[in-house]
Design a protein that fits this description.
The complex is a heterotrimer of chains A (about 400), B (about 400) and C (about 290).
Chain A (H helix, E strand, L loop, with lengths): L1 H18 L2 E8 L6 H20 L7 E8 L4 H14 L4 E3 L3 H14 L3 E3 L15 E3 L4 H12 L2 H4 L8 E6 L8 H10 L6 E5 L7 H8 L5 E5 L2 H13 L5 E4 L6 H7 L1 H4 L3 E5 L6 H15 L7 H22 L4 H12 L6 E3 L2 H9 L4 E3 L18 E7 L2 E8 L6
Parallel strand pairs in A: 1-2, 1-3, 3-4, 4-5, 6-7, 6-8, 8-9, 11-12
Antiparallel strand pairs in A: 10-13, 13-14
Chain B lengths: L2 H28 L7 H16 L6 H5 L12 H23 L4 H21 L1 H4 L22 H25 L1 H11 L1 H6 L4 H27 L9 H14 L4 H17 L10 H6 L3 H20 L79
Helix pairs in contact in B: 1-7, 1-10, 1-11, 1-12, 2-4, 2-5, 2-10, 4-10, 7-8, 8-10, 11-12
Chain C lengths: L1 H31 L6 H17 L4 H24 L7 H23 L4 E2 L8 E3 L2 E3 L1 H23 L1 H11 L1 H6 L4 H27 L1 E2 L3 H16 L4 H22 L4 H15 L10
Antiparallel strand pairs in C: 1-4, 2-3
Helix pairs in contact in C: 1-5, 1-8, 1-9, 1-10, 2-3, 2-4, 2-8, 2-9, 3-8, 5-6, 5-8, 6-8, 9-10, 9-11, 10-11
Classes of the chains: A alpha/beta (about 400), B mainly alpha (about 400), C mainly alpha (about 290).
């Protein structure tokens, strides 16, 4: 016991000493457990930006260092991980947490005034919960749901002759997914085609045959499928094997290359998906990001990759501005500068990455960061809006069909 | 580095888990019940306390927070706390009534299964619990009104420590009393206990209920400390963690249960700093889950090590007043060391009960091949070992 | 009626996926006498080794066989290191050790294979049409493989020397030892067999689940326990029966009662059976 305490003291001392020269940003995300892929997807992108910052001289000469806080996909671990990041690592900002671990860490974050930018938590629970410390670079599921309903009920957005007339919803019962359900139902109703049936299913089941059977009994022409890629593939396969002839509409979580690989191009062919895009012109920036990330890490961009790009850029630019204008990079200054670099305003230079933002800031200008996911303008609660691209799988790849501007979602 | 708030936060959580361990210790360490569904009582306590104390639907606080839950009674937190214990006890009675007749392995799995059923119900009945959304306006008593937010963690720790200390004292009182001796007699030799007139089913049920009540109290403490309640917390791994705490600390010993919980927290949280070692940062780039997974590998190995090399835990059960040494004395050959968690008291006083074999209680032994490798054969309870 | 038959078919398939793992676990329990919480990791390892084998260029059947052998050997080795030294300490230390081992194994897989789900290399197949019924191919394949494996186990237990020794040891270890049966050999054989079967069970699970993930075995373990307990712990034939009951129970429950409660039906059945027949449907131990 005594040895353990000595060891702990030694480690903590090392940690304390090492802190002197760096700015720590905490990654409060799951790296093990049920949602282990979330942390694994976010970290490399964040690291890529951190490297970009450090290679150009850091923030006031100090390097950004990322610190992992594994929330393990449970509430308590979310709490202890946040404790470690906030009180021991003394992080200046947090990337994350996810919807579930948020419940464990919310009070701590609020009470200690640490700014958090989450690229993953789309839950509608956060729509009105935001205090001045909460920001997110992922649009609320209420928007995503609305977008799907809007597109599905309008042939123009689908790129086909007719809109769908008999939609069925299948929504996973997990913190990350449930909040799609209500916006989907309300929006479908609002746009004139009420949902024929809604089915909630338990995530992680080996077989979804009976759920699929129930869904098919309502004779849908499109099934809106909200869930993880693995569960989605199982459901789609079960439907395939049951002879389903209609198509599918999935959310941002499945609209990526990995999903097609998992499902096989044959099964995924023709399905519709949703992706946040900044503007019709931004797809080239998106491609540039994908190329850059591939060169950096050797892997493809995964779910939450673009959201993380925006989150980390906003944080880095906020820290830089804090350094330049306030002379100090701490929790309070970073919190205040987040809006300064992200929100629109007269005379602001629009920038799309750290390097160009740094150039503008150092030249004395004000900037307005435009992200991959959207314009990244935070409302009073820290939410963003985004136009959405409606996509469809053709020949084994996601292709653009149309763009849904934010105005179409009113 | 704000080390103190860090330790305070962890200590509060460790004490709450310590209370859970205290309850399990009463069930297993003292009475010999293999309860693998402890987390269910934790859950019931948390939700009871939360739902009873949340601001009612439609009230000012509810609207301001933009809440969506259906049920909130707005009662004072102490009431919620007490009723949480009651709820835990009642659920334990319910679960216990169905399973106390079962012998070891079956009891273990049955309680495990029932806890999963409870969790399933809590998840699906989202009108009650908000299911996967959780409820996040659980009142934190006196925060910002009497006690400023900055010192609240310290105040809450103090309150938790007091509550746990009181419950610990009461529990120790209970286990030292004749009732406690009766419970231990059930653990040590149920057949003999019954032959001496003890009503073992009632005793077991009682232990189940008290242990469940303690877990219910823990649930209340937990939800008010975080200000949220979410069904995602109450997963089987929590039950395992409590078991680890009990076994590491020394089962049969109430103080051991608390100590084990502290030790477990120390082990799991100190490994969080693994990633700060400079050697490992390169590996993190290639596989971000590498270090976090390594951490669990270490925790697993530590667990295995503790069980292997500290079978009695940190604080084994206090030897009782020596009794006459019965014929066969220590149960040798088949496992005289006793299982982890110290039923081994040096052999003399207790006659060294071996926990390891199943079907100790002997209810359902019958034709079941109770033997295992190196275990006693059926019908092995030497008479006269129990202490009424 | 069609729906009912359909449900039955899928119940059979679900039961088949569970059954192999349940048989493996039962065999192991019969000889080692403790609940092995790391057993699910053998499933995970079997699936991952297979994926690895195919990625290295082997054909799927070859990869599966090699994976089974690898998991079998791993099982023996792990038992030697972690479980054998505790064998005479009673079942609780073994149980806790198995939990620790589960943590270790699952996270070692995650350390090396990463967290993202990997597709299991099985091609997509359209179902057969039998009258008004859809009979998908994967469940049929699973049922066939499971049946063959179980027949194999049965033959092994009844016809071979080592099988008879395993049964003898499970029935009455003291007597078995007294008649000269080497406990160590039986232990090793049991571990090999039970782990290898678990590995195959993991492969079947991966076939129905499409993708493999580090948590797959651990998540599935509870349902396997339910089947084993249901059938009477330590009795592999009981495990087969228990798996069938659990599989049907899950499918019938989710079809006719409520799709929300999936696995909970398995547990409900388990609890009911335990209350009525505390030793399981067939008595424990073969």
């Amino acid at each position: 016991m005594r040895r353990a305490i000595t060891l702990l003291a030694a480690i903590l001392t090392t940690v304390a000493l090492a802190q002197g020269g760096s700015i720590k940003v905490g990654l409060l995300l799951p790296f093990t457990g049920q949602y282990d892929w979330v942390g694994a997807n976010v970290q490399p992108v964040a690291q890529m930006i951190a490297d970009e910052v450090n290679q150009s001289g850091g923030i006031g000469g100090r390097d950004i260092v990322l610190s992992q806080g594994d929330t393990e996909g449970t509430v308590d671990a979310g709490f202890t991980a946040a404790q470690k990041l906030v009180n021991v690592d003394n992080v200046v900002a947090l990337v994350g947490p996810t919807s579930l671990s948020f419940s464990g860490s919310k009070q701590l974050i609020q009470d200690t005034g640490v700014p958090m930018v989450t690229p993953t938590a789309g839950t509608t629970e956060l729509d009105k919960a935001g205090t001045k410390y909460f920001f997110r670079t992922v649009p609320s599921d209420s928007l995503g749901g609305r977008a799907i309903a809007r597109a599905a009920t309008n042939a123009q957005y689908l790129g086909r002759a007719q809109a769908f007339t008999s939609p069925v919803l299948m929504v996973a019962k997990s913190p990350a997914m449930v909040s799609f359900e209500s916006p989907l139902q309300t929006s479908f109703e609002k746009y004139g085609t009420p949902v024929t049936a809604t089915l909630e299913y338990a995530p992680g089941k080996p077989s979804y045959r009976s759920e699929v059977q129930q869904a098919l009994s309502h004779d849908p022409d499109v099934i809106v499928l909200v869930g993880t890629p693995e569960d989605s593939v199982r459901i789609m396969q079960a439907a395939f094997q049951a002879g389903y002839q209609g198509t599918w509409f999935v959310t941002q979580d499945q609209t990526n290359a990995d999903f097609i690989k998992l499902a096989t191009p044959q099964l995924a062919n023709g399905i519709y998906g949703l992706e946040e895009v900044a503007s019709p012109e931004s797809s080239s920036r998106n491609d540039a990001f994908k190329t850059r990330f591939k060169a950096y890490s050797g892997k493809d961009v995964q779910i939450f990759g673009t959201n993380t790009f925006d989150a980390m850029n906003v944080l880095a630019l906020a820290m830089l501005r804090a350094q330049l204008k306030d002379g100090a990079v701490n929790r309070e200054t970073v919190t205040q500068n987040i809006r300064a670099v992200a929100d629109p305003g007269n005379g602001k230079v629009q920038v799309t990455d750290y390097t160009s933002g740094k150039k503008a800031l150092e030249a004395g200008q004000e900037i307005n960061y435009q992200g991959l996911v959207g314009p990244i303008d935070f409302d009073a609660y820290g939410n963003i809006t985004a136009p959405f691209a409606i996509r469809q799988v053709k020949d084994g790849a996601w292709t653009d069909v149309t763009i849904l501007p934010a105005s179409a979602l009113q | 580095m704000a080390l103190l708030p860090f330790l305070v936060g962890l200590l509060t959580l460790a004490l709450i888990y310590g209370l859970l361990a205290l309850g399990l210790n009463l069930q297993y360490g003292v009475t010999g019940l293999l309860n693998f569904g402890h987390v269910a009582f934790f859950a019931i306590g948390a939700f009871t306390s939360a739902l009873l104390t949340l601001p009612p639907k439609g009230s000012a606080a509810y609207l301001q927070a933009g809440a969506h839950y259906q049920i909130g009674l707005g009662w004072p937190v102490p009431v919620g706390f007490l009723l949480a214990g009651v709820a835990g006890g009642l659920l334990a009675l319910l679960i216990g009534a169905t399973s106390v007749r079962l012998s070891s392995h079956y009891l273990a799995i049955a309680t495990f299964a029932m806890a999963e059923i409870v969790r399933s119900v809590l998840t699906n009945e989202d009108w009650l619990t908000r299911g996967e959304f959780g409820i996040s306006n659980v009142p934190q008593p006196l925060k910002d009104t009497v006690i400023p937010a900055s010192v609240y963690p310290y105040a809450y720790l103090a309150a938790t420590a007091v509550v746990v200390a009181v419950l610990l004292a009461l529990t120790v009182r209970l286990t030292e009393s004749p009732y406690g001796r009766a419970l231990r007699s059930v653990r040590d030799d149920e057949v003999a206990a019954r032959s001496l007139g003890k009503r073992t089913p009632a005793l077991k049920l009682g232990a189940f209920a008290v242990g469940g009540a303690l877990a219910g109290f823990a649930g209340s403490l937990w939800t008010h400390s975080l200000g949220v309640v979410h069904v995602g917390q109450f997963v089987p791994i929590v039950t395992f963690q409590v078991w680890l705490a009990v076994l590491m600390g020394g089962s049969g010993n109430a103080y051991g249960a608390l100590l084990g919980s502290l030790a477990l927290m120390a082990i799991t949280q100190s490994t969080r700093f693994l990633g700060d070692l400079p050697l490992l940062s390169g590996l993190t780039r290639r596989n971000p889950s590498f270090v976090p997974s390594l951490r669990f590998v270490l925790i697993g190995l530590l667990l295995i090590g503790v069980v292997r090399f500290f079978p009695r835990g940190i604080l084994p059960e206090r030897p009782r007043r020596p009794r006459r040494r019965a014929g066969p004395g220590r149960r040798e050959g088949a496992g005289g060391e006793g299982s982890a968690g110290g039923q081994d008291h040096g052999g003399q006083d207790h006659g060294g009960q071996d926990h390891g074999g199943e079907d100790r209680g002997g209810e359902d032994r019958g034709g079941d091949a109770g033997g295992g490798l190196g275990d006693e054969a059926a019908g092995d309870a030497p008479p006269g070992e129990a202490k009424p | 009626m069609t729906a009912f038959l359909q449900t039955l078919i899928f119940g059979l398939a679900t039961g088949a996926v569970i059954s192999l793992s349940a048989v493996g676990l039962s065999l192991s329990y019969g000889v080692t006498r403790f609940i092995n919480f790391s057993y699910g990791e053998f499933l995970t390892l079997g699936a991952y080794f297979t994926v690895l084998g195919v990625a290295l260029g082997l054909s799927l059947p070859v990869a599966i066989v090699l994976a089974m052998a690898a998991v079998g050997i791993a099982g023996v080795a792990l038992a030697r290191v972690f479980f054998d030294p505790l064998m005479d300490r009673g079942f609780l230390p073994l149980l806790v050790t198995s939990v620790g081992l589960a943590f270790v194994l699952q996270n070692v897989v995650r350390m090396f294979a990463g967290s993202n789900p990997i597709r299991f290399p099985l091609p997509l197949m359209r179902p057969w049409h039998v009258g008004a019924l859809f009979v998908p191919k994967v469940p049929v394949l699973v049922v066939v493989v499971a049946l063959l494996a179980m027949i194999g186990v049965h033959l092994l237990l009844t016809l071979t020397r080592i099988g008879k020794m395993m049964r003898a040891t499970s029935d009455n270890p003291a007597l078995a030892r007294a008649s000269g049966i080497s406990t160590a050999r039986v232990l090793a054989a049991t571990w090999f067999l039970s782990s290898a079967i678990g590995g195959l069970g993991g492969v079947l699970l991966a076939m129905t689940q499409i993708a493999v993930q580090p948590v797959m075995g651990w998540s599935f373990l509870l349902v396997v326990f339910a089947a084993v307990l249901l059938g009477g712990i330590g009795n592999p034939y009981g495990a087969m029966l228990g798996s069938l009951v659990v599989g049907l129970g899950i499918e019938l429950g989710t079809t006719y009662l409520s799709p929300d409660y999936g696995h909970a039906f398995a547990f409900l059945i388990l609890v009911l059976v335990l209350l009525l027949r505390p030793r399981g449907i067939l008595r424990g131990a073969f």
